[in-house]
Write a structure and sequence with these properties.
The protein is of the alpha/beta class and 344 residues long. α9 crosses α11. The strands form two sheets. The protein has a seven-stranded parallel beta sheet with strand order 1-4-5-6-7-8-9. The chain contains 17 helices and nine strands. It has a single domain (6-339), classed as Alpha-Beta Barrel (TIM Barrel). The structure holds coproporphyrinogen I (1CP). Residues 24-29, 38, 43, 70, 72, 74-75, 88, 93-94, 139, 155, 202, 204, 320 line the site of coproporphyrinogen I.
């Protein structure tokens, strides 16, 4: 089994044989095999069973020829162990019946012994490392994105409860963000110890912040998260991803990450101008482009690839794969990117 390390090389801005590709939410409802497994198990039941979880993680790698696997899990997985019960509801997402709204709710949260409580995560990662011939990406939710589910009680449009706490109760906000940072540091370390070869931090909903508010309410916590994981292990590439973050990119870079994940609202050239040359970039095809005719889809992918002028690029979507996408569309796209001639 020849190990394909193009993804790790791109994260480290080293020369690659081809531009590596993976897709956010590459394991999911667009796959008939995944839907079949979901008839028998809930998402969290899959996550708790290492053999099945490893199989679901491997499925897209085998089916799409992508250059990395991402552990099948959800950003909420560690939150239950931190004392906040949640449920992933069909067609909605993570829901919390007793949302976190004040200091006493936060005081009940803890940083548990993740190694004990999440032994199934360790086992799944160890299994996958024996099975995979591409790198395995571990991940966690960023403190703000996690807080948004925990305070709102579920997915939200404008995060009113979360931002009310943030603006009105500085002590509670600091306590909540800090307990989440502590928890995510331990959770990422657990994934490193188990064998994860790169880690992505999903700050999916941070794009709702102004620059001023990001600096005041998010940046210090993200800095602590990235600095701490880097000092634990400086060889594991860290990917920092958010949606709708074009106006925040310099601050996101300042927060940390070897690779910055972009959505499709900014061009690679503009992002490079903001970010400079000392980080890698991941992105950034509009996920709805997968519904365009093949020639248009390839044009859109080419437009991205033509802007890649140096090492340090990972091809991905700007956000997750949506359920109606055809498997063949993604597989053909992977091959299209792999065959694209490198400029360097
Ligand atoms: O039951 C199902 O199959 C429902 C869909 C689903 C899936 C496939 C959910 C519910 N979570 C997942 C798995 C998942 N979640 C992965 C799998 C690995 C892969 O990419 O293949 C990952 C990385 C996540 C991470 C995640 N969960 C994020 C960050 C990424 C992103 O999309 O921005 C977020 C925001 C969540 C919350 C979540 N979980 C599920 C849903 C539907 C949502 C979004 C809800 C919302 O709109 O707020």
């Amino acid at each position: 089994m020849v190990f394909n390390d193009n993804f790790l090389k791109a994260c480290r801005r080293e020369k690659v044989e081809h531009i590596p590709v993976w897709y956010m939410r590459q394991a999911g409802r667009y796959q008939p095999e995944y839907k079949k497994i979901r008839e028998s198990y809930t998402l969290m039941e899959i996550v708790h069973q290492p053999e099945i979880c490893a199989e679901v993680t491997r499925m897209p790698v085998e089916e799409l020829d992508v250059d990395a696997a991402i552990l099948f899990s959800d950003i909420m997985t560690p939150i239950g162990a931190m004392g906040v019960p949640f449920e992933i509801r069909e067609n909605i997402g993570p829901c919390i019946d007793n949302p976190i709204r004040n200091a006493s709710d936060i005081a009940r949260m803890k940083t548990p012994d993740f190694k004990k409580e999440l032994s199934y995560v360790t086992e799944t990662i160890q299994l996958l490392r024996q099975q995979l011939s591409v790198p395995l990406i571990g991940f966690c939710g960023a403190p703000y994105t996690l807080a948004s589910y925990m305070v709102e009680g579920g997915p939200s449009k404008n995060y009113i409860h979360t931002k009310s706490m943030m603006y009105n109760n500085a002590i509670a906000w600091e306590a909540l963000m800090n307990v989440l940072v502590d928890g995510m540091i331990e959770y990422l370390k657990l994934q490193i110890d188990a064998g994860a070869q790169a880690l992505q931090v999903f700050d999916s909903w941070v794009g709702s912040f102004s620059r001023e508010d990001y600096k005041a309410y998010v940046l210090p916590y993200m800095k602590r998260l990235f600095t701490s994981v880097k000092s634990y292990n400086n060889r594991i590439p860290l990917i920092h991803f958010g949606v709708n973050t074009a106006h925040l990119l310099d601050l996101i870079k300042e927060a940390g990450g070897d690779v910055i994940g972009l959505d499709w609202r900014i061009s690679i050239t503009d992002a490079r101008n903001i970010l400079g040359n000392d980080v890698a970039i991941q992105g950034n095809l509009d996920p709805t482009a997968l519904y365009a005719p093949k020639n248009q889809l390839e044009e859109k992918a080419s437009l991205i690839l033509e802007q890649v002028k140096q090492s340090g690029f990972v091809f991905n979507l700007g956000h997750g794969v949506t359920p109606q996408v055809q498997v063949k569309t993604l597989k053909d796209l992977t091959h299209f990117v792999h065959d694209f001639e490198l400029k360097n």
